[in-house]
Amino acid sequence: MRTIGIIGAGEVGSQLARAAVTHGYQVVIANSRGPETLTRLVDELGPSARAATAADAAEAGDFVIIAVPLKPVNDMPVEQLAGKIVLDTNNYMPWRDGHFPAVDSGEKTVHELRQEQLPASKVAKAFTHIQAPRLFLSASPPGTPGRHALSVSSNYPEAVELVTRLYDEFGFDTVDNSPLSESWRSGPGQPAWQSHAHQTRERLAANLANARRIKYPVRG
Asked: Where does the record place the Pyrroline-5-carboxylate reductase catalytic N-terminal domain (predicted)?
């Protein structure tokens, strides 16, 4: 699985594309404004990358990264994402995206809502509690003492396995924080979020365990 579709070319999507190309992946990247607006990014990424529509990026990817916020009405290419593992980098930020009552009440997580919008896909929460520049700054080879760790949440073991492998390639250890109903533990305001600059696997596991429900998610 060496082709990654990326939907979203903002700070997170662009940096994930850079990391993917660096590690030998082909990248097909899309944004909301059209492939012609991604010329500069694709030129920077080189021959391993091309721009496309969201539907084409979803179709081309062996797996797909969604690097855009969740919308109340699904705007993702459901048909093209069917049967694929989808990495969702979204965080619940109501001051940016508006409120989702089911998330505010603790009934569901924003990633469970993404899974509901993509019922034939296998959604995993990934790359959500690391700032984009640290995808390079904090990366280190396997076995490095005190290696930076990231969490993954999914209802599908095969999605967790893929993300774990990808994290390791990109330079990070993994803590499995599954299923998606537990994905709130690494969200804004939680210990894992606040320790984004660096946390080992052991520290991250403790931070996830120490998370507490925040009725109305806060900045930072």
From this structure: 3-92
